[in-house]
Design a protein that fits this description.
11 helices; secreted; cell membrane; binds 2-acetamido-2-deoxy-beta-D-glucopyranose; glycoprotein; 316 residues; 41% helix; cell wall; eight-stranded parallel β-sheet; TIM Barrel
Length: 316
């Protein structure tokens, strides 16, 4: 009895948590290539066009998630993904890098304010949300180089103060972290402080999940992580901000990279999220350029990502 009412309550929460979502479809993109070279406007625009031209997707992949507001190689110049998004009619899930001391984090705030001044509503109209931080709580729990919950809460309030009275006010302010950082009791103050949760979950990296990390269990593992996060979300929407299945790389326990398995993951897990209009930022569009990484998650191989074929079928 108790069990089934919990399940019903969770199902109702799941629906409430998703009702407000708009089904944004996008990819994660860093400010640098894996070689360390800084991406420029032309590089971001190229990725955005490649995403919109992905075969069999009806041009639906029009959003991009950023990790920082700062253009690589500068102190607080707005990242050139902003003019690239304006140019390509893309939307942006902004990110402020929060695993820093307060004085360094101030550069993120300054870049955010500079972007509002420089680009105005052409910029603010295309913002889907603002994430303060990325996996900071997870990293702090693993090796101490992230940020504490108190620090993240402080940076969230600094961000809210920075956008108050600007055309960004009213955009949802969230935090991105691994699903198990959100379900950890120590981090509930962060959830109380945000408008949405950005959840990262990789069944590939979960060999100890019930049923293991073989591709055949990945869909179950992913949605258990999602449902557990929804259960911790205080009724707030849970966006998917990173997930994927690697195409090339080492076997991790029973998890085998490969295009066939990535296709399976897409068809089962990604398509289920899209069918339910859950905001989705996939990891990732392109292989690392100029350097081999292991594992490699790119739907498109390195090089000409506009014209090279996708490594697996993207229909749902
Ligand atoms: C930009 O995207 C919006 C919404 O997807 C669409 O209505 C509009 O026509 C697009 N504009 C251009 C110039 O492509
Ligand atoms: C994947 O998981 C979702 C959520 O539990 C479920 O509805 C769907 O049927 C699953 N897909 C497959 C192919 O098992």
């Amino acid at each position: 009895m108790h069990f089934s009412s919990t399940v019903l309550a969770l199902a109702a929460t799941f629906t409430a948590a998703n009702a407000a979502q708009k089904g944004y479809k996008g990819f994660n993109t860093g400010s640098t290539f894996s070689t360390g070279a800084n991406k420029q406007q032309v590089d971001f625009a190229y990725e955005m066009k490649a995403a919109q031209e992905l075969p069999n997707t009806d041009g639906a992949w029009t959003s991009v998630r950023l990790y920082t507001m700062i253009q690589g190689g500068t102190t607080d110049t707005p990242i050139s993904a902003i003019p690239a998004a304006i140019e390509t009619n893309s939307t942006l899930l902004l990110g402020l890098w929060a695993s820093e001391t307060s004085d360094v984090f101030q550069n993120e705030i300054n870049a955010l304010k500079n972007a509002i001044t420089q680009y105005g509503t052409a910029f603010t109209d295309i913002v889907t949300g603002i994430s303060v931080g990325s996996e900071d709580l997870y990293r702090a729990s693993i090796n101490g180089v992230g940020a504490t919950p108190d620090q993240v809460v402080d940076y969230i309030s600094q961000t809210r103060a920075a956008i108050k009275g600007t055309s960004l006010e009213g955009k949802p302010v969230g935090h991105v972290d691994t699903w198990d950082a959100f379900t950890a009791a120590a981090n509930t103050a962060v959830i109380s402080a945000i408008d949405f949760l950005g959840m990262d979950a990789y069944p590939y990296y979960q060999p100890s999940s019930p049923g293991g990390n073989a591709i055949g269990n990945a869909n179950t593992t992913f949605w258990k992580a999602y449902t557990d996060t929804v259960g911790a979300a205080q009724g707030k929407p849970v966006w998917i901000t990173e997930t994927g299945w690697p195409i090339v790389g080492d076997t991790d326990g029973a998890a085998v990279p490969g295009a066939d398995n990535a296709r399976t993951y897409w068809q089962e897990t990604i398509c289920h999220a899209l069918a339910n209009d859950i905001n989705m930022y996939y990891f990732q569009l392109q292989s690392s350029q100029g350097q081999v990484v292991n594992p490699d998650w790119g739907i498109k191989p390195a090089g000409d990502i506009v014209n090279e074929p996708a490594r697996f079928e993207l229909t749902c």
